[in-house]
Fold:
Amino acid sequence: MSSSSDPIKAGHSAGSTISGIASGSIDVGKSIQIGDSLHNIDNKNELIQLSIPVEVARVLKWLAEKQNITPELALQKAIATEAFIYDITKIQEGQILFKSKDNTIGEITFK
Structure:
């Protein structure tokens, strides 16, 4: 992996610069609207200790810095986004499309 200060551009391509076109909303810390079901999230904290690869930690810190939020909130948002994407693409069998700067349309696919 390159030593770029932008870990997304430095080698991560899975959803790095995505503007998803889908219905639903993500409101981290309160609730997540996914498809037709509402998943309530209480504001209680549960301590879960995880070991993650250094590069994943670097991307998490980068996301937090870019959004001026804590790494914990960046992780919550990433999980909520993954749940939303999973619902759209797997449960609802929909698509997530993006439009690049050059106005080309692409599709994000997950295997």
Observations:
- The longest strand covers residues 31-34.
- Confidence is low (pLDDT under 50) at residues 8-32, 34-38.
- The helical segments are 54-67, 71-91.
- Strands lie at 25-27, 31-34, 37-40, 96-99, 105-108.
